[in-house]
Amino acid sequence: MTITIVLLCIVGLVLLIALGKINAFVAFLLISVVAGVLLGMPLADIPKSIEKGMGDTLGSLVIILCFGAMLGKLLAESGAAEKLAAALMQAFGPRYIQWAMVVAGFVIGIPLFYGIGFVLLVPLIFSVAYQYKLPAIYIGLPMLSALSVTHGFLPPHPSPTALVVQFDANMGQTLLYGLAVAIPTIIIAGPLFARTLTGIVSRPLQAFAATTPAANPPGTANSFFTALLPVLLLMLAAGYPFLTGLPFQRVMALLGQPSIVMLLAVAYATYSLGLKQGRTMPQIMAIYADAVKDISMILLIIGASGALKQVLTDSGASLAIAEQLQHVALPPLVLGWLMAAIIRACVGSATVAGLTTAGLIAPLLQQTHTNPNLMVLAVGAGSLMFSHVNDSGFWLFKEYFNVSVKDTLRSWSVMEALVGGLGLVGVLLLDLFV
Q: Which ranges does the record mark as transmembrane (predicted)?
């Protein structure tokens, strides 16, 4: 019954948005209330759950998304994004630009959370698309597939790292196995699949297109350093604790927080791409204000998707679904993947799907002596399946790339399904040899 209610709510959400033409923010809130009532939550608790879901989701993302939009807008307005695009195009050429995007997404995706990587890379995607008249989804989806795979499969991302701990797996072996699965998965779900989507018309956010050519553009080195500064800071903060004996460990712990990193990156960009290039402070602040206005509705939609996720979690729906699946007669790796995939489809959060599955599959893991490193990857792959209207990543892609719900399902959702399905295939093949 729980699965039926959740599926009905998801169908209702799709109908409200696609057929009813209701704003996604409003539709999410309506369905969240309906879901809470149908799942038997105390009526007084439903608003609290909605508020908590929005707060938790936006609390971790709003600073990153706002600063990311500011940085992206300044990169575009200053001419730095054009410099980046030109350098990539010169190095790889139009024929291999997809592979340049894949490499960038994979390298940047390893140390970064998905949301941060997305907002940092989107301006680069759009800059290449605008400057060289290439389809944005054709060049963008390969990069985002690399980001998604690193988010779901590879430590040190939160979900796979937590799974490593819960399954008592080996971090190094999991990373090596994950790389073996990740590379072919990215190739198929990214560049190869994106070649089938050239017919999708995407009009990306104008926020990342320079309105007029920059009069005094920055140099290529300055452009690359400013754009990659968040990545460099996060990598430095991640590796610093392992360099024993060095001072300022607590300071580095502070500077390694994503919100602080983005603040520092925007502060540096204000000088390197703004003041240094002859812009006044009021002009720079006007650019930042426009950037935040451009993503305001995106923030509301993402927050509302978090509200629905929280209602489904607080109502016990995710746990009930997992318990029903626990007795299905399947090989442990396939069962772990399936549990995570179904919870992801119902709840919309890859992290919630992975961690919920972990608590229920761990006893079976010990009984069957299944390789824990492979189980981390199987659950991680399952947690990426079935991204649709209840997933904040779905709405990030839709709103930034400015495509319809139908085309988002055709591109983003299918890409995520390929990532999850190919991930399971790779895990099962590895299981034959390790």
A: 30-46, 58-76, 96-129, 136-154, 174-194, 224-243, 255-274, 295-313, 333-362, 374-397, 409-433
